[in-house]
Design goal:
alpha/beta; five-stranded mixed sheet; 38% helix
Length: 430
């Protein structure tokens, strides 16, 4: 299926009904799976068999969703999680532990920033944030002997900064660590980071992947191309969790046994096993269904977003707008390079009169929804400084590109003239 068109992969990828079987992916709603001898069950615990046995470690429905995400991202394997936050957490914990160091761009989602800056530090992992627009050489200079990964977002949420993936990948590989890219806002319909050198891709599938606001979930996809046997300056394995014997599995070497799927196999058999951040079969089914229309939805999202962005950019009561799909935007050229089909459907803007005027605008909207969400069929708005990023200091908010008056707008699939009319009437009342 990898040679088929993206639209075909969305519709047909991963799951294929056998003769007389359901055309649509079945929901296998069972916690346990039956076996008839001890040897078959023992093979499961020795990782010699991949058949299901307990829903915390997967199910046929979840497995099919994982395979589809890997197929769409052009990766070698995928691992579903209970949320996007869980996906980012276990992607890091799979290769880093207390005493290690992670590099991350500053312009990332506020929840991820807090996860890295607070929770990972409590676990003993030091995360160093940096301006993602610095040079490759400057990124490399930030590396330490204990650096284990570099992290960034294809499209910063809600700063809308576009990641120079190739630059980040070159820096990461010079250091000898994987590049982890959160591709939530772009989706594989608009950008596939692995094609530009990323090693691990994460998603909050709650957003555009599901697309209908029904299912919280996340996913990790690996490229299968990173060499986990890389060594540090002293000749020691840099990633012993991946390429050294694991005593909890009788000395099994994940990379040696599972090769290009090693990262995701270890995610499932160690991190999901121990932390339990499992995606439910129902959420996997609904998100798999959402992926079937991902390409056509993103096409319309982009078309509507561009029209709304042009309207806001030319409105006399709008002070500023950030949308990488607009010519003249700071990241327009990078957006054209990495997302030639469009810069997704999320934008940020501020109205004249600052925070108070912005709050008034939200009160005046009739069609658009004020919700803590982006990326579904409904047009939605939010004030991040007082909601998603309120746990950050004002200085940290500004470093993440969050102006006190910033309004985040996710353009939906309604008739675009109706979306524009709603903002026009709301702006007229300020």
């Amino acid at each position: 299926m990898k040679n088929k068109g993206f639209e075909t992969r969305c519709v047909h990828g991963a799951y294929k009904a056998e003769s007389g079987q359901p055309q649509n992916l079945p929901i296998v709603q069972s916690t346990t799976y039956r076996y008839y001898n001890a040897q078959d069950v023992a093979a499961l615990f020795d990782l010699d068999s991949a058949t299901p046995f307990y829903a915390r470690l997967g199910s046929p429905t979840v497995d099919a969703f994982e395979q589809k995400m890997a197929l769409l991202e052009c990766g070698s394997a995928g691992m579903a999680t209970s949320s996007g936050q869980a996906a980012n957490l276990i992607a890091v914990l799979n290769i880093a532990e207390a005493g290690d160091h992670i590099l991350s761009g500053t312009n990332i989602y506020g929840g991820t920033y807090n996860l890295f800056d607070v929770t990972l530090r409590k676990l003993g992992i030091d995360v160093e944030f940096f301006d993602q627009d610095i040079s490759e050489e400057e990124i490399i200079a930030l590396a330490r002997p204990n650096t284990k990964a570099i992290f960034g977002e294809t499209l910063g949420n809600p700063a809308l900064s576009v990641l120079d993936i190739e630059k980040f990948a070159k820096a990461a590989h010079t250091i000898g660590v994987p590049l982890i890219v959160d591709n939530t806002l772009a989706t594989p319909a608009l950008c596939r980071p692995i094609e530009f050198g990323a090693d691990i891709v994460t998603h909050s599938t709650t957003k555009f992947a599901d697309g209908h606001g029904t299912s919280v979930g996340g996913c990790v996809v690996e490229s299968g191309k990173f060499d986990w046997t890389v060594k540090d300056a002293d000749g020691n394995l840099k990633f012993p969790s991946m390429a050294a014997p694991d005593e909890s599995y009788h000395g099994l070497n994940f990379y040696e046994k599972f090769g290009e799927m090693a990262f995701c196999v270890r995610l499932k058999t160690v991190l999901i096993r121990d932390l339990g951040c499992t995606m439910s079969p129902m959420n996997a089914y609904l998100t798999h269904q959402g992926l079937q229309t991902l390409d056509v939805r993103m096409e319309r999202h982009v078309k509507n977003a561009k029209a709304v962005a042009e309207f806001l950019a030319n409105h006399p009561k709008v002070d500023w707008i950030i949308y990488p799909g607009l010519p003249g935007d700071k990241y327009y050229d990078l957006a054209q390079k990495y997302m030639p089909k469009g810069a997704s459907a999320v934008m940020s803007f501020g109205v004249k009169g600052g925070r108070a005027a912005g709050e008034k605008l939200l009160e005046n909207l009739e069609l658009a929804s004020v919700v803590v969400h982006v990326g579904d069929i409904h047009t939605s708005v939010l004030h991040p400084a007082s909601t998603t990023h309120r746990q950050l200091s004002e200085e940290a908010q500004k470093a993440a590109g969050i102006d006190p008056g910033l309004i985040r707008l996710s353009v939906g699939l309604e008739t675009v003239d109706d979306i524009i009319a709603d903002f026009d009437q709301a702006l007229a009342k300020i």
